[in-house]
Amino acid sequence: MNDLDVQDQMLKLVNSVKVEFSSLSLEDLAYKICQKYKVKINVQKLDEQDGFFDNTTSTIVLNDNVWFRPRRLFTLFHEICHMLIAVEGEEIIETLTSHAKSDYEDVEEELCDLGASEFLISNQEIENIFQNIDINTFITLLEKYSHASAPAIARKLANLYPERAIFMICCLKNEAREGDHVVEYAFSSKKMLPYRVRRFLSVPNNHLFCFDYNKYSGTESNGETVFPFKKTWTCYGEYFVENGRLYGILHQKKPVDKSNQLSLL
User: Fold this and answer.
1) 132 or 66, which is more confident?
2) What percentage of residues in the chain have a pLDDT greater than 70?
3) Do residues 43 and 64 make contact, with C-beta atoms less than 8 angstroms apart?
4) Does residue 37 register a pLDDT over 70?
5) What's the CA gap between 123 and 134, in Å, rounded?
6) Contact status, residue 254 vs residue 169, Cβ threshold 8 Å
7) Which domains are seen in the chain, by residue range?
C-alpha cells in the first residue's frame, strides 16, 4: 500500500466536508457535520478512551473527563473522521482492505489522527504562511493556533516536512532533575519510515536532547534517535522548552533557507 495515496484520500475527504461548511467555528463545524450525517454526540464517563464512534448507533461518545479544549476538539474530529470513513470513505476502505489487512485498525487510527489535524489546521494554511519548516514554525503555530494541541501541530508539521526529520515532544520524568526526559510523542516525516516509539520511553542520556539546552537554541551533534534499534545518526537538532516540555525537531540535514520564515525570535 502506498501510504501517501491513502493519506491523500483522507485529506481530500476532510477538505470536501470543510468546504461545504466554511466560515464556521470549530464547534459549529463539528455540530453541522454531525447534523448532516445524523450522528449523535454523547458525553459520558469513560475509563481509558478519550472517545469513540459507534457505527451501529451513529453515535460519537466523548469522555466527560476530557475538558482541555484542544484535546477535546482533536478527539471530536478524530471520531468524526471514523464516521466519515464509514459513510463516505469507500475508496479508503477498499485500499485498507486490500493492502492493510493485518494492521487495518492501526492504519485507520493514524488516518483519523491525520484527518483531525487537517480539521484543526489545514495544510494550505501552513503553506500560505511558511516557505520552510523549522523550530520557528513550531513555536509560531503553538502560539497562533491555541485551539490545536501540541501533538496535532507536531503531526501536521511532520506530514508536511519535505525532508527526513523527526518531530518530538518530551516531558520531564522527574521535574527535580533537569534533562531527565521521556518521549510523549514522536512523528516522522514522509520520507522516513514510521517512527513508532512507546509513549513515555526514557530518552537515553547520550541523546542530543539530553545535553545542556537553552530556550530557543539549536545544536548540531550525534544523537541516538531510534531508541528500539540502537542506531545513531548525525543530525541537526532544534528545540525549545516551555512549561516543562521539550519540543524538538531532529533534521537529517541542517535546514538551509530560513530567510523567508516568520519568526518569534
Assistant:
1) 66
2) 75
3) yes
4) yes
5) 15
6) no
7) 3-120 (1.10.10.2910), 124-251 (3.30.450.130)
pLDDT of residue 198: 63
Q: In the structure grid, which three cell numbers stand for residue 25, read together?
A: 467555528
| The 3-state secondary structure of the chain, one letter per residue | CCHHHHHHHHHHHHHHHHHHCCCCCHHHHHHHHHHHCCCEEEEECCCCCCEEEECCCCEEEEECCCCCHHHHHHHHHHHHHHHHHHHHCHHHHHHHHHHCCCCHHHHHHHHHHHHHHHHHCCHHHHHHHCCCCCHHHHHHHHHHCCCCCHHHHHHHHHHHCCCCEEEEEEEECCCCCCCCEEEEEEEECCCCCCCCCCCCCECCCCCHHHCCCCCCEEEEEEEEEEHHHCEEEEEEEEEEEECCEEEEEEECCCCCCCCCCCCCC
- What pTM was estimated for this model as a whole? 0.79
